[in-house]
Specification:
heterodimer, A: 394 residues, MetI-like fold, four-stranded antiparallel sheet, 8 strands, globular, disordered N terminus, B: 361 residues, mainly alpha, 3 domains, 15 helices, 71% helix
Chain lengths: 394, 361
């Protein structure tokens, strides 16, 4: 090959027959086409914007938003700026995505394991669930759950109470929550410090096991610390037991914690839909670990729990994590469908902003940037995790 | 003297064969499993009979909305009375045989294409002619067919149109993006990676917003595209990125030897790809491509948000009619069944194909 090229170049190859030069030329042409297209579109846009006298730029973010948002994690009113409105929307998206991801993983794992169960009935039920949920568009499911809420459930006056201080009505679900008390803050701090302590203990226990071979019951001690510390804090504050029970006042419940029907419908739709996909991922992961692995682990005398923890799970997770990541990202992206049922998520707030200000380009750019940020940061985290659990080959 | 019974004549114990044996191994194998079975049966007993009564026994099948409200069960009348609108939207009533015929052609082509023995060049021509005929039937304007504006298109034909044309156009684009991403030319590669990751990172709805509000700004004055076409472009751009990733998987699955063999025969890049690599790589990725088709079909429902009258939107506009208000469950269940039938047959087919394809290896 080399010799051939040398003889060819000695006869002065024309540049269009030299692969390297041709590649450069081809790339230049590609860039030129893309650049021209971009220039054409931008210039058209600028002319159109000038004609419609729309100002460009992100200055509108500092203006007063003048619209209310149904639910918000931070204080917000119509007098606040658009920037703050968008922040409220982003936090609402994070809220539903985070809660959704946690529940989805749990539910999906249960269904995936049920699918593999030797119990014929359970396995077939799980299979039907997976197939049906995967084959119905998520948007349709969201509409369905939302309709169930506002059509089927009674008004707050005749709310259904399935028990334990929970009230179901077409205005949402009202929960009984503990009365606000300063102890709660300290209990939360105790929980956090408990987690840190457990992490340190586990590290120490692993090191000690490597050095001496002695096993420390890190799991049981960890559970005791994580639950025990907040409990002790609670006792130290005199065990406040006040409950904030939702009461019917006017047309809706007062007190307690009320979750809006939009939020519930969105969460329900996202979780039930994505759990079907997660179940398939989990099933594939568990099936990928060969039977011999379990048998080998048991034959060296490991008990069932260590077999699962030390042999099966680390291998199954390796297969599960990458597709699981993309399912979690799908859930986050699908949460943008909230705009269709009126939950004030990021896209919904941005859409209102676009409609009010006419800053469509900036609005869509903000939506895309924020979702790209969500996606890229999640996949960066998952790549890091994946690298940690990945097989270390020789 | 007693004769030993030959082993072949001994029947296995009753508890190990037949219905009892099957029940024992599959449902009541141990305490935990038995409890699981009983709990599941209890749950089914609680859910299925009332659901059955609601859907079939107490339901109203072909009545007015008023009579429906008095029925205790489901109101299927909302479907049987309004099915023409749900399926065809605002398409002129007398002309609705045209989208129906177009859909029948599509189903016929899909059905014929199921068999892999029919995958020849003639099938490709049949598809091109078929798609062209469908478009002609929908638009009209020739052969004495009155023209129908695309603003009047709606319902199931629109959903199918967005999905089928979306995928047909996205496929070649996806192949090009995948080849670009695997290219040795850094510039091309970077462009393709940027495009694919950007599109895959954002939700489809942001692209649909873009198509409905920003796209008109991109065009020079006086040039306008209709809304359906703009949404179609957004769906194509979106689907292409996902197809590109699937095809990249196929390309990575090709052994190096294939490239080297092609090169040693003196084939250039285009010949290598067209004659050696792509035919094999595309064959590997048929099953995942079908899953992309399924999600593209489901994703077309998102055009509701930019107010195109697809199947879901026509259903919702029936629901906003005061006579039929409040029967969302029945209406959505009907639409869900339609989507389910479409997706289920596709995923079933994909599984069968996967089995067939792996048989040869």
């Amino acid at each position: 090959m080399k010799g051939f090229q040398e003889t060819a170049s000695s006869e002065k190859t024309p540049f269009w027959l030299d692969p390297r030069k041709r590649a450069i030329l081809f790339q230049l042409m590609t860039f030129a086409v893309v650049g021209l297209l971009a220039y054409y579109l931008t210039s058209n846009t600028l002319i159109n914007l000038k004609k419609q006298s729309i100002a460009t730029g992100f200055g509108f973010l500092q203006k007063e938003s003048a619209f209310e948002i149904g639910e918000s994690l931070i204080p917000y009113s119509a007098a606040n700026t658009y920037a703050r409105a968008l922040l409220v929307g982003a936090l609402n998206t994070i809220k539903v995505a985070f809660i959704g991801v946690v529940i989805t993983i749990i539910l999906g794992t249960i269904i995936g394991v049920a699918r593999l169960s030797t119990n014929w009935l359970l396995s077939k039920l799980a299979a039907i669930y997976i197939e049906v949920m995967q084959d119905i568009p998520i948007l349709l499911q969201l509409f369905f759950w939302y309709a169930i809420f506002y059509e089927t459930l009674p008004s707050p006056r005749e709310a259904i109470s399935p028990g334990a201080g929970i009230f179901l009505s077409n205005r949402g679900v009202a929960f009984t929550v503990p009365q606000a008390h300063p102890a709660h803050l300290y209990m939360f701090l105790a929980l956090m410090s408990g987690c840190v302590i457990v992490y340190l203990i586990r590290r120490w226990a692993r090191k000690r096991q490597e050095r001496t071979g002695k096993i420390f019951p890190a799991f049981r001690v960890g559970i005791a610390i994580i639950f025990g510390l907040p409990f002790l804090t609670w006792l130290a504050f005199g065990a406040p037991l006040g409950m904030n029970v939702p009461k019917l006042g006017g047309f809706n419940f007062e007190g307690g914690l009320t979750v809006s029907p939009e939020f519930i419908a969105l969460l329900l739709g996202l979780v039930l839909y994505t759990a079907a996909f997660v179940a398939e991922v989990v099933r594939a992961g568990i099936q990928s670990v060969s039977k011999g692995q379990r048998e080998a682990a048991m034959s060296i005398g490991l008990r069932p729990v260590p077999v699962l923890n030390l042999v099966i799970l680390p291998q199954a997770l390796r297969v599960i994590v990458p597709p699981l990541t993309s399912q979690m990202l799908n859930l986050t992206k699908n949460s943008s469908l909230a705009v269709a049922i009126g939950y004030p998520d990021f896209v919904s707030v941005a859409n209102t902003t676009i409609n009010q200000t006419g800053q469509s380009i900036e609005g869509v750019a903000i939506i895309m940037t924020v979702y790209l940020f969500f996606s890229l940061s999640t996949s960066a985290f998952m790549n890091w995790y994946n690298k940690r659990v990945a097989l270390v080959e020789r | 003297m007693k004769q030993a019974v030959p082993a072949g004549e001994l029947k296995p114990p009753v508890t190990h064969i037949g219905i009892i044996g099957w029940t024992k191994t599959n449902l009541f194998d141990g305490v935990f499993n038995s409890i699981l079975t009983l709990v599941t049966l209890f749950f089914l007993w609680k859910v299925v009979p009332p659901l059955f009564r609601w859907a079939f026994l107490d339901s109203a099948w072909h009545t007015t909305g008023q009579a429906c409200r008095e029925a205790a069960g489901a109101c299927w009348s909302i479907i049987s009375i309004n099915y023409r609108f749900i399926l065809f939207g605002f398409y002129p009533y007398e002309e609705q045989w045209r989208p129906l015929l177009a859909m029948l052609i599509l189903f016929g082509l899909l059905f014929y294409s199921r068999n892999r023995e029919h995958w020849k060049k003639s099938l490709a021509y049949a598809w091109i002619i078929g798609l062209f005929t469908m478009g002609l039937l929908m638009t009209g304007g020739i052969l004495g067919l009155p023209p129908v504006e695309s603003t009047q298109w709606g319902g199931l034909p629109l959903t199918l149109l967005l999905a089928v044309f979306g995928l047909t156009a996205a496929y070649p684009l996806g192949v090009m993006l995948a080849l670009g991403r695997r290219s040795r030319m850094t510039g091309v590669k970077v462009l393709c990676v940027l495009y694919i990751e950007l599109i895959r990172g954002v939700p489809l709805i942001s692209l649909l917003f873009m198509s409905s509000i920003i796209f008109p700004l991109f065009l020079p004055e006086g040039v306008t595209f209709n809304k359906i076409l703009r949404a179609q472009v957004a769906i194509i751009l979106f689907t292409a990125a996902y197809i590109a990733e699937v095809i990249r998987g196929g390309l990575q699955g090709m052994a190096r030897g294939q490239y080297e063999a092609a090169e040693s025969m003196g084939l250039n890049y285009y010949q290598t790809m067209r004659l050696v690599i792509l035919p094999q790589a595309l064959k590997i990725v048929i099953p995942p491509t079908v899953s992309i088709l399924i999600s593209a079909f489901k994703d077309t429902s998102l055009v509701v948000i930019i107010a195109l009258f697809d199947l879901l939107k026509t259903t919702q506009s029936v629901l906003s009619n005061p006579e039929w208000m409040g029967f969302s469950r029945e209406a959505y269940v009907f639409v869900a069944i339609l989507y389910f039938l479409g997706c289920f047959s596709m995923s079933n087919y994909s599984r069968r194909l996967e089995k067939e394809l792996s048989k040869g290896d």
